[in-house]
Design goal:
This protein has 315 residues and is α/β, with parallel strands linked by helices. 39% of the residues lie in helices and 22% in strands.
Amino acid sequence: MDALILAKAYLELSAHRPERVHVFDLDNTFVNGQLLFHLIYSVASTLPDRDKFRLRLDRYVANLHVHQGAIPFMNSLAIALADENFFVGLEEGRVAALARGLAARIKNETNAFPLAVLEAIKHYSGESGRHACSMALSGAPHVVAEPFCGQHGFCAVFGSAYWARHDNGGVRRYTAERDLDSGLRKGPLVKVTGEFLGVDWAESVGMGDTLADIDVFKQVGYPVAINPDGKLLAEMRGIEGAGVVFESPKIGVNLLRVSRGRLIEAELHEILPRSLARYCPPVDRMRYAYENDETLDLDIERSILLGVVKGASKT
């Protein structure tokens, strides 16, 4: 794990002296999409010397509505482009500026349930008066994960480091070196963080959508899979009491939990700590809020999460 990212995240967490720390994956869990794909598309659409990449992305986006398994394909395409040294030679400062602008544009592209839980965490106060913290673990480049999470009030962010060095003219440019531990080795990172802060993970929530999150799920007391893929869902069936959430504009938000290897309907307090569930809005008030639609707004006092997808309201 990149030492600077690690040190900054630990300092931010330590400053809060949290009673609880809750863990969020970003791509396709908190974010309705993949930050790496968004960043590559933004850079390729802006910088002329990345035209060859943009053409491939444009062909994909044009056929997205008919593509089977769109999310896995989007993930694999973005990773493949990164592996083809997409970022190598690009000016670090220019990419960082594009990433900040991107983060602002896609701020509302979040899934409803994780967003509601995050807002509840901000309002949680334990019996000791200490508060809870949220940390994001993601394989997305830190340069975009950090500003995106900053907008939502995450306490700490662990993103992938894409390293840069000064060229002969003194400009920092990306190399082919990357540190992907925040996406590939989440379990050890959570373990070390718990030891560093003295956190008991038994009352913590962990959210994710793929097998990369399974080691986190095995450490926290309240694992919750968000729109899990088939491989993760099979593993989740072996974790008694684990939460599984399926949500989309068409079906709304559906909560399930594992009971003896089967998925059954669940209530908020069955898949979240009761101390946290009481700060969440009712499930039937959880809706998507997309850019250019109504802004998502959470009123804790009335426990209402506003933001209705066109034609998807159940209320």
